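Why should sequence recovery work at all? Because a backbone constrains its sequence more than one might expect. Tight turns favour small or flexible residues, buried strands favour hydrophobic ones, and helices have their own preferences. The token representation captures these environments compactly. In the example below, the structure is given first.
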């Protein structure tokens, strides 16, 4: 029967153990060991890949796959969870879905579920959310929180306090 085997001259059918499967459907051949990144129950006829968002943390197909934490991602059949890289986030807090790039004007470290907006006076000048925000030049420039660029004061406006985190003021 499927999920079982017996040796020549055997007196009973042997059920495939957890972690093994009767992949060829031939009861005359031993059950095959399932590879890392999969799991099976007793009497299995196929090896099941760990679903997206889970991993085979012990590389034993006889134990269940376990969930990855938020701030990481794992595709089907994984043996590891991959942290979202610096400049990326796990926006839906679902390790089954890939990480996404943080928007302009923000930054993030690895393994996070949110991006941090650049503070007032700082901007994402290199358009790379994996790097720190850069200070805007003092004297005639301003940036609001979450800026991707420093804004020069318009004509008839000045940076009266020489602080790029505060708005320009009229003359």
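From this structural description, the recovered sequence reads:
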């Amino acid at each position: 029967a499927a999920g079982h085997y017996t040796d020549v001259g055997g007196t009973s059918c042997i059920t495939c153990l957890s972690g093994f499967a009767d992949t060829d459907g031939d009861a005359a051949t031993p059950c095959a060991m399932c590879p890392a990144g999969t799991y099976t129950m007793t009497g299995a006829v196929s090896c099941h890949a760990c679903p997206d968002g889970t991993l085979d943390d012990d590389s034993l197909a006889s134990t269940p796959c376990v969930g990855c934490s938020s701030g990481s991602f794992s595709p089907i059949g994984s043996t590891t969870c991959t942290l979202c890289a610096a400049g990326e986030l796990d926006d839906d807090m679902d390790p089954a879905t890939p990480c996404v790039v943080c928007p302009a004007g923000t930054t993030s470290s690895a393994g996070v579920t949110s991006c941090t907006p650049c503070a007032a006076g700082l901007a994402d000048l290199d358009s790379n959310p994996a790097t720190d925000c850069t200070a805007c030049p003092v004297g005639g420039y301003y940036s609001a929180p979450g800026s991707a660029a420093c804004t020069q004061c318009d004509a008839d406006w000045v940076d009266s306090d020489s602080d790029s985190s505060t708005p320009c003021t009229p003359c």
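A few observations help interpret the result. The two ends are 90 Å apart (CA to CA).
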